[in-house]
Structures are given as structure tokens and as C-alpha cells.
Amino acid sequence: MARRDDPTPSNDEHATGPTPPPEPQPPEHDRVPAAPPREDHREHPHEDTPAAPAERGAEDPRDGDPGAEDPRDDAPATPAERKAEGSQDGTAAATRERGAEDPRGNTVTAPASLDRRGGGKGRRRRWGPMAGMVVLLAVVMTGSALTVGAARDGRGAAGHAAGAPEPLLGGSRGADVASLQAHLRAQPKDHGGWAALGLAYVEEARTKGDPARYPQAEKALARSLELAPGNEQALAGRAALAAARHDFAGALAQADQALKQNPYSERALCSRIDALVELGRYDEASEAADTADARRPGVPVFTRYAYVRELRGDVTTARRVLEQALASATARGDIAYVATQLGQLAWNQGEYKEALGHYARALAADDGYLPALEGRARARAASGDRADAVRDLEDVVSRYPLPGPLVELGELYEARAATGDRAKAENQYALVDAWIALARAGGVNADLDTALAAADHGDTGAALRAARAEWARRHTVHTADALAWALYRNGRAQEALPHARQATATGYRNAAFLYHRGMIERATGHDDDARTHLTAALRLNPGFSPLGARAARTALKSLEAAR
Questions:
Q1: pTM of the entire structure?
Q2: Which residue has the higher pLDDT, 341 or 135?
């Protein structure tokens, strides 16, 4: 949608952004994620599932969708209710003894890696004090305690989030699921309804941080394909599901299949861009973004177009496209999402005042939009307002316990260093492990999350194993950076250096990448290069990380003193 005011197409994509569509569009029949899966995690609605089928013999939408439960089992819990629930009749203590049982009857046990956490090799912590927190996490993730309205995931600084879909049918997501299931009780052979239900579960899994929804989505999409083999809606849904699970090769294959059926499928076009980006095939992703813009221009395509440009260091075009996308947005959810993307883009450049303005715009559209709250917390922390930043993130993680905000909050506690803050930080890092264990149980590839969190705040050996596994699957700037940092944290700086250089090769302006490269160059004796990149990190975004920025300044002082 960039430069819609300029009727003359330009051959300079960096000057104009997406071009107007050269061909007519078919009627829209599907909705698509507004946010692509983003490897800089810049992955909460009330859910209401149906009761029993209306009549005997009707096919229950929960068949092939085994996680659906009675709405009463899915009622949101307030923090006070959860606290009371854990203290009554010794329930919490009993649960710690036998393992947590989530509302679907699955037993959640402590992940083995928790015993190895604590910031590095040789440091161990007791599992016992954390058991109750992991129980809480299981309840939050599977009991629908994340109930904050229609939102799409934004970008978190410390993790790697996938973008979440827009509401499929309008209104609250819970109403979408309920209405779809009610429809399928009456029309159990509707393959389109099953495809839509599968996509609704993908959406909930992403926005609620609930990987248990992914197997439900898989079952619903399979049912759609049983009823109508090869139907485009289910194939596009499978592409979205694969991307959400970080199976990007699978997402690309499914998107290509869907596009053979319908070249105008917005969801498949967007999933194809996402997959190519996350596989590190940036030239192809750029071409795919151009194709999608020609066929189905709109907010979902524009945000992907902007991100492809940002990865190449073209911040000017990325900002212009997002600003034009915001100008065209009318739905509150779209306004909140695009404004949050603009906030993150500004924050990445160290423009904290501008970032706070964008986050305020997002929250004016949706005051419960958690990615905007998370982004505002980072901008506040970088601006020196640490108290409000901590409050924002505590609010976020109470409802949105994903690795990014958990690590961010832990680092803010460490940086604040008040009495008890170190223990609070350790609790956040331990919950990352709990989330990863539950994510893997839901079929999500969580190696990148493991590598990023564990390298600085856990078992560095586990971080390296996970980073190597992810690098074997895909070569992106983010996997290169994760592998470089994991190698460095394991004392293998010389081996890390080529990967650190690769992470910064596209021109992507990321202060954490520059910091990692500078520290690795310092460890390998490249002092001049280390000074260059550490200085560049702090000049670009001096508040990129409470702990990383402090370490960068300390390293620079040491390098200057050694001259």
C-alpha cells in the first residue's frame, strides 16, 4: 500500500514500497495473520467453547478437536482467584507432590532442565520452590487465564515470537470459536467450517501462548481435508499451523499447495512470505512480498513487506510502509498491531520518545493489547523509568507467560538489584523452561527460544545444543546470532566469530547483534573491531538490554584502558 498517492509505479522498490495491484482481486473469503512470525520476537481473549451437541447423533466439533471443553472449565481466573485456588485445602502442596494436572487431564511435570538453571554451568537450583509457579503456568496456558481482548502478537526484544492471526470472523476470538463450534454441531460435514475452526485454534495458541491448542488445530484441519481433500482453506490453515510451530519448511510446502488451488489466498500468500523469511531466503521473501502485494494488498501483506525491508537495513521504507498501513487501518485490532510495529521499529533505533507515542496510539485502540504493553515497558526501561517498566512487564507475564517477556522481566529485576530481586529473576528464567517443556509437548519447535534464554540465564550447554539444532534447520540472521552467542558463552569464541559476522551481514539494525559481535571480537583479539561494534550497539539503541548494555559499556571501558 505504500505510495498509494503516487499513481506512477517506480522500479525502485526502496523508494516506493509496495505497488498498487495490477490485476483485480477475488472476493475475500479468509482472514490472515496481521503479524508474520518474527525472529526477533518483538507468539488474549476470553474463550468460550460449546457444550454437548444439540442432539444425539450430531457430530460433535470436539471430535477431532479433543481439547475442547465446557465453557465453565475455561473461565478466566484473576490473579487473586489463582492465588486463592493454590492456597485452599492444601491443594497446591498436593499438586506439587503428584505433578500438575491441567484442565485437559494432562500431567505437567517439572522439566529436567530446571535443575540445571541458574545462569551458567555448575550452578543448580532446587526445583521445589518453583513447582507451584510451573503449576500456575500450566493453568494459565491451558485454563484460558489469558483473557485480554483481541490482539495480535507483536515483537518482543528477548524472545522470538510468531505473529498471531487476526480474528477470523470479527468480534472476540472466543465468540469466533464458539460460533464455529455451534455451526459445526448443526453442519458437521462443512469442510470450510472445520478449516476455520482449525485456524481459530492456531490463532488462540499464538495469542494466548497455549501450545496445547496446536494439536486441536491439527485435528480440525485434518477433518476438513477428510471431507474435501485438497481444499485450499485447510491447506492454507496447515501452512499457518506449521509456521506457528516453527516448521517453516513444512509451512512453505503447504502454502505452495494452497496457492496452486487459489493463487489469491491471502493466508497462503502471507504464510509463504513468513516461511521464506524464517528459512533465511530473503531474496525469495522479497519477491513473495511483491507478489502478495500485487494480488492481495492489505495490512497483513504490508506488515510483512515492511519487515522484509527492515531485515535488509532499509528502515526508511519499513517505516513508511507501516505508517501507510496504519493510515489505512480501520479496525481497532489492526491499529493496535501496526502502531505497535512502528513502536518497535522506533525502539530498535533508540528513538524512545517516538516509540512511546506509537505504543500510546496502540493502547488507545486496545488498552489490553499486551504486545504494546510489553513494548512500552522496554521503552520505559530504556528511558530510565524502570519502576513503571517493571509494573508493565509484571502485568504482561501474569497473562502472557512467553519466553520474551519472562526474560525481559528477569533482567529488569537483576538490573534493579533490590532485596529479593535475584530470586525473582531466577523464577522468571525457570518459567521459560516450563513454557518450553509445554510448547514441545504441543509440537512446537522451541530450540531457538531455548538457545536464547539458556545462553545467558541457564544451562549454556543446552543453549549450544539447541542453537546447533536450529542452525541445522535454517540459516537466518537470528539463528546465526543465537549460535554465535551460544558458542561464545561456551568458551568457543573463535568458532563463534563467523556466525556473528553472518548475523550482521544483511544490514539489519539490531543492537543486540552488534553487542554480541563486539564481545566475540574482543574475546578473539580483534580489539578495534570490538570497539567499533560495541560503540555502534550503544549508539543505535543504548537501552537494548538492561544487562547487555551494561556489559557493553564495561567492555568498552576495558578496551579503552588497554589502548
A1: 0.73
A2: 341
Q: Count the alpha carbons within 13 Å of 532 in the hemisphere toward its beta carbon.
A: 6
Tell me how far apart the alpha carbons of residues 330 and 124 are, in angstroms, rounded to a whole number: 51
**What H or E segment, with its residue span, contains residue 538?**
helix 527-540
- Residue 312 neighbours by CB under 8 Å, 6+ apart: 282, 286, 506, 507, 508
pLDDT in tens, 20-42: 433 434 433 444 445 544 444 33
Contact 100, 134 (CB under 8 A): yes
What pLDDT is attached to residue 399? 85
Question: How far is the C-alpha of 241 from the C-alpha of 444, rounded, in Å?
Answer: 10
User: Where does residue 114 rank: exposed (0-12), middle (13-18), buried (19+ CB within 10 A)?
Assistant: buried
pLDDT digits (tens, 9 = 90+) for 176-204: 888 999 999 999 999 999 999 999 999 88
Please tell me the distance from the alpha carbon of residue 255 to that of residue 251, in angstroms, as a whole number: 6
Segment 114-125 mean pLDDT: 38
- As to burial, measured by CB atoms within 10 angstroms (0-12 exposed, 13-18 middle, 19+ buried), residue 57 is exposed
Reported confidence tier of residue 18, pLDDT bands at 50, 70, 90: low
The phi, psi pair for 269, rounded to 5°, reads -60, -45
With 0-12 CB in 10 A as exposed, 13-18 as middle and 19+ as buried, what is 20? middle
The residue behind cell 482453506 is 233
Helix (H) or strand (E) holding 516: helix 511-523
Question: Rounded CA gap, 40 and 346, in Å?
Answer: 14
User: Scanning the structure block, which residue is given the C-alpha cell 526508511?
Assistant: 316
CA dist 177 and 201 (Å) reads 8
Does residue 165 sit in helix, strand or coil? strand
